[in-house]
Automatic annotation (TrEMBL):
Limits of the CoA carboxyltransferase C-terminal domain: 231-462
Keyword Transferase attached: yes
Species of origin: Coprococcus comes
Transferase keyword on record: yes
Keywords carried by this UniProt record: Transferase
Protein name in UniProt: Carboxyl transferase
Domain annotation CoA carboxyltransferase N-terminal: ranges: 1-234
Length: 478
């Protein structure tokens, strides 16, 4: 039972997040110990942050919720120490930490004491990375150094009226909030890619509950399973028609349509998120060329290439999955690398990061080639060459250096139309068909689209006991 009797937003958020009556407060009597600038005359119950533990659908979690009614929720020495203490407990017990942010920044009256304690908060987050899931939700202000704390989390959500910023928009030279609100949920979800989801307070808390339910509690937890009530051999009759919108395709493959998408508004040409296959949590990464609306109409369209932002999004997701022992499924449909001046600034680096993430991951990795798989972009997308354990391809997939007609034009520049057509068909058969790739061992099995769910479930069941070593080293540098 909670020791907190207040009905302020900070405690209500905890109550709405956790199973009813499960919250136990820790450090409820802690208050600020600073006396400079007449601080002793200011009441600071809980020092502006409520900390404790509870359960979500029976799963243990640790929570801190900042109280903006106490010194505007500013972070003082004891405030930060309370959060650090929660991290210590969470790592000992192997349970996620959920932070509910509503803060006016560091407390000026405590200066170096606040800074030092806040630094310990950073340190605990760094130590917890890859050990326990860290989830942050921004309900008010999350500015300055606290923005880095949100970025250090594995998953971050924002209320529609929340503010997340390093520098407030009006302090950026040449910018104003009216011109470009860099602190808004829209900017931070679409442009920076820090935010996974935006919504009302109720929607965000529901998303966090769903995420906790599907994630392992820690990096040694092998119990991230749910009972499967779906048919393991279910035929996905319309999957081929949904392939261009990978978010839709993944939900069709998953048990009972479960799909929890991450970073929904960022780099929409790449889809990342969690599905369930025979009750097992699986991380999914997929290329997307279209977004369909609820009526099945095309709402957005992409050019089918691999972008720098898409690579960045996917690499971080694959690293998370590998850290927590979550198998990875990819749906590959990519015709090449994005060709823009903007992409050229970052694409090589981000492509390298994604290649490294897939190659370095030792979890079970399955790839399904649903459409085009051309050039280096294909190699990067969890190909057999960089470590995929099983690779499937649909019958109409195209695998190779480039489209067959382009290859024919390059090889036979002076040929007439009939010759080019014949050479195109010859190139398809010899070099870019899934049968050709399978003949060389680059594809394990050619499968019908409708049977995809059955095959990937079978693959992950077979790979369940996978063990794979890497060269001994402290860590990679990519």
């Amino acid at each position: 039972m909670s020791n907190t009797t207040s009905s302020n937003p900070a405690s209500l958020r905890i109550a709405n997040l956790l199973d009813e009556g499960s919250f136990v407060e820790i450090g409820g009597q802690v208050t600020a110990r600073a006396t400079d600038f007449n601080m002793q005359e200011k009441k600071a119950p809980t020092d502006g942050v409520i900390t404790g533990y509870g359960v979500i659908d029976g799963n243990l979690v640790y929570v801190y919720s900042q109280d903006a009614s106490v010194l505007n929720g500013t972070i003082g020495e004891m405030h930060a120490k309370k959060i650090a203490n929660i991290y210590d407990m969470a790592m000992k017990m192997g349970a996620p930490v959920i932070g509910l942010i509503d803060c006016a920044g560091l407390r000026l009256q405590e200066a170096t004491d606040a800074l030092n304690a806040f630094g310990s908060f950073y340190y605990k987050q760094a130590m917890a990375s890859g050990v326990i899931p860290q989830i942050t939700a921004v309900f008010g202000n999350c500015g300055g150094g606290l923005a880095a704390a949100a970025a250090l989390s594995d998953f971050t959500f924002m209320a529609e009226n929340g503010k997340l910023f390093v520098n407030s928009p009006n302090t950026i030279p040449g910018n104003t909030a009216d011109k470009c609100d860099t602190a808004s949920a829209k900017f931070q979800s679409e442009e920076s890619g820090i935010v996974d989801g935006v919504g009302s307070e109720e929607e965000i808390l529901d998303e966090i509950r769903s995420l906790v339910a599907i994630l392992p509690a820690n990096n040694e937890d092998n119990d991230a399973y749910d009972e499967c009530t779906d048919d393991l051999n279910r035929v996905c009759a319309d999957l081929e028609n949904a392939a261009e919108d990978a978010a839709l395709a993944l939900s069709m493959i998953s048990d009972n349509g479960v799909f929890i998408e991450t970073k929904k508004a960022y780099a929409k040409d790449m889809v990342t998120g969690f599905i369930r296959l025979n009750g097992m949590t699986v991380g999914a990464v997929a290329n997307r060329s279209k977004v369909y609306d609820e009526e099945g109409n095309t709402a957005e369209e992409f050019d089918g290439t691999l972008s720098a932002m898409g690579c960045k999004k996917a690499a971080a997701f694959v690293k998370f999955c590998d850290a927590f022992g979550i198998p990875v499924l990819t749906l590959t449909n990519v015709k090449g690398l994005k060709a823009t001046a903007c992409s050229e600034k970052n694409l090589a680096r981000e492509m390298a990061a994604l290649t490294y993430a897939f190659a370095d991951a030792t979890v079970p990795k399955v790839n399904v080639i649903t459409g085009k798989a051309f050039g280096s972009a294909y190699v990067t997308m969890n190909s057999k060459a960089i470590g995929a354990d099983m690779v499937y391809a649909w019958p109409e997939a195209e695998i190779g250096m480039m489209a067959a007609d382009m290859a024919a034009k390059i090889m036979y520049t002076d040929a007439d139309a009939d010759t080019l057509k014949a050479k195109t068909e010859e190139y398809k058969a010899l070099q870019s068909s899934p049968l050709s790739a399978a003949g060389r061992g680059y594809v394990d099995t050619i499968i019908e689209p409708a049977d995809t769910r059955k095959y990937v479930i079978g693959a992950f069941e077979m790979l369940f006991t996978k063990r794979e070593e890497r060269p001994s080293k402290k860590h990679g540098t990519i």
